[in-house]
Fold CAAX amino terminal protease self-immunity.
Amino acid sequence: METQFAAVLGAVVIAGFVAAIVLWTGVIRSYFGSEIAFSESILPVEPRQVPFWRVFDFLFAFGLSLVLTILIQGIFISQGWIERFEPDESIPLQTLVASLVGQSLSGLLVVGVTLAWLRLIRPDAVKQLGFDWKASDMQLGFRASAMLIPPTLLISSAVSYLVPYHHPVMESLEKSPSIGIFAILFVGTAIIAPLVEEFLFRVLMQGSLQQLADSIANNDDTVIDREETPSPHWTPRSYWPIVVTSVIFALMHFGQGAAPIPLFVLSLGLGFLYRQTGRITPSLVVHCVLNGFSLSAEFARLWVEKAS
């Protein structure tokens, strides 16, 4: 059974790489012979309103997430849901799961509170933050998944030979590869975590840095009124906000072995998606697909080993 599983997983991975090569080849072919920039051949930038939120709003949300995480973890400890353990001991399964649940709860609260705060400034904040729904964004997200995830997995596999990969979610699943544990971890890591991270890093951080970067590039000292609706014809110009956001995003995963390296590369792609569209859905789909695939593949592997 393990051999059959390895064959199926290998076929899926190969199909993913073939799809990535075909899609990237199409992009490169469309670029040569045209007069448009390479970034525009990948994905044309969409005009929109200049971001009204600032770096302060990101710092507010990030600080709130730290406070809420500590508060919820403290409540869980007081209820006995999180057990204390020595540094050289393995983390108990109950503690791992409870910690992840606490992080998910704090993340959802951060998104909700921050959206409420920004809506006090601008009633249309939810739309301007990129939460407006477009069915085409789902298609774009899945297409981008085929282009970004295979290279990310290839880099991850390469660097894992140098530095072993560690992640509490995978450790939880390895300790108890049950459907119940898998369902809890899947909701937390493949749905909630991507939503929180894309909102914090792609929207709040990159969006605010983009507004700042373009103001500097244009030598524009005009102060934008956060409560007034600006022109809907703004398009981003600078690219360094993507790089800065990706560096910080990767460093936030420090302690998971060499994971920051492939995550930095992935974040560049996610940042590009958000820069060109101004909406969260495309990058969120890619993030969800990657986390969901990684977790599902690991669960299937452990389940096959247990059944053998």
Summary: The chain has a mean pLDDT of 86. The first helix runs from residue 2 to 31.
